[in-house]
Amino acid sequence: MDNNCLLDVKNLRVRFYTEDGAADAVSDVSFSIEKGETLAVIGESGAGKSATGMAIMDLIPPAAGVEVGGAVDFRRRDGTVVDLRRLTSRQMRHVRGNEIAMIFQEPMSSLNPVYRIGDQIAASIMRHQHRGRRDARRIAAEMLDRLGIPDPKARLASFPHQISGGMAQRVMIAMALACRPSLLIADEPTTALDVTVQAQLLDLLRSLQNEFGMAIMFITHNLGVAAELADRIVVMYAGRVVEHAPTKALFANPRMPYTRGLLASIPRIVRDDAAMKLSAIPGEVPNPRHQPRGCAFHPRCGHTLAGLCDTDVPPLEQCGPRHGVRCVRWRDLVSEQAA
Amino acid sequence: MTSEPLLAVSGLAKRFIVRRQDGSRAELRAVDGVSFTIERGEVLGLVGESGSGKTTVGQLILRVIDASAGTIRLDGIDIGALSTAALRPYRRRMQIVFQDPFSSLNPRMTVGDAIGEPLAIHGIVKNAAERREKIAELLRLVGLSAEDAKKYPHAFSGGQRQRIGIARALASAPDLLVADEPVSALDVSIQAQVVNLLLDLQARLGLAMLFIAHDLAVVEHIANRTAVMYLGRIVEIAESRTLCRRPLHPYTEALLSAVPTPDPNIKPARKVLKGEIPSPIDPPSGCVFRNRCAYALPACSKERPPLREAGGGRFKACIRDDIL
Question: Which of A43, A146, B1, B317 has a 20 to 30 Å separation from B284 between CA atoms?
Answer without folding.
Answer: A146
